[in-house]
Specification:
With 240 residues, the chain is an alpha/beta fold. The protein has 2 domains: 1-32; 34-236, TIM Barrel (Alpha-Beta Barrel). The protein has 7 helices and 13 strands. InterPro entries: DUF3142, GH.
């Protein structure tokens, strides 16, 4: 073999190696969550709706907050979004809801529907610790008894529930809540190590979704697609 032919083979081998390395880097790099790739969203008060929201199937709208002192603070006027299925979301800092607050929230569900919205139900956004899940389940069971049967009940959940919650506490959610939306982010970033938690999400015995943060890193764990109760994703939209 001549020197030029040998050099050509070396250059081809080097080029092939570079292409393989670049391909491996692309495969290892996490993807970013793009709103336009999804159909369900969280829209918090003060966040401008992106164009992707026009084709959304489901939108979770923050309606208000129950503060630690039991006061209810409304954060949104009655929406008019008949093209979407909407959830009325209440962020809560306490499980001690005064009766007038609970009555106000239930009445808001009816007002939203009367305005022409396709209201799915109520979602509670409360950071129940894994150790406190049994107390949270008891609160939800009591709320479910007073919530008219026309409304479904959804809750947000921590990824740690699936990995470390007591099985009895998880089981107590069955028949009480219609879905759990597990949050995989904190602030504006995806929580590191999310895959090892979501690999055990099938322990949650009610239908569940995974909430992603817009722009956050994400690579779907294979276990999710094998999970018979997995119902897809909800993207938390960020302020622009």
């Amino acid at each position: 073999m001549g020197q030029e032919a040998a050099l050509l083979l070396v250059n081809r081998a080097a080029l092939l190696l570079i292409l393989v390395l670049l391909s491996a880097c692309r495969a290892a790099a996490p993807e970013r969550v793009r709103a336009e790739d999804y159909t369900a969203f969280y829209l918090w008060a003060g966040v401008r709706a992106p164009a992707a929201l026009q084709s959304a199937e489901t939108v979770y709208l923050l309606a208000g907050e129950v503060r630690r002192d039991g006061r209810y603070i409304a954060l949104r006027a009655v929406p008019r979004a008949p093209q979407h299925e909407v959830w009325l979301v209440v962020r809560s800092q306490t499980l001690d809801w005064p009766p007038p607050v609970e009555a106000r929230i239930i009445a808001d569900l009816a007002r939203w529907r009367e305005a022409g919205n396709r209201v799915a139900g109520l979602q509670i956004d409360f950071d129940a610790s894994t150790r406190g899940l049994d107390r949270y389940a008891a609160f939800l069971a009591a709320l479910r008894q007073r919530l008219p049967p026309a409304w479904r009940l959804s809750v947000t959940g921590l990824m740690d529930w699936s990995a470390n919650a007591d099985p009895a506490a998880l089981a107590s959610l069955k028949g009480v809540v219609d879905e759990v939306v597990v949050q995989s982010y904190q602030g504006r970033s995806t929580i590191p190590g999310y895959a090892r938690y979501l690999d055990r999400l099938a322990r949650v015995p009610v239908p569940h979704k995974v909430a992603l943060v817009e722009g956050g890193e994400w690579r779907e764990p294979a276990a999710l697609r094998r999970d018979p109760l997995f119902r897809g994703y909800v993207v938390f939209l960020l302020a622009r």
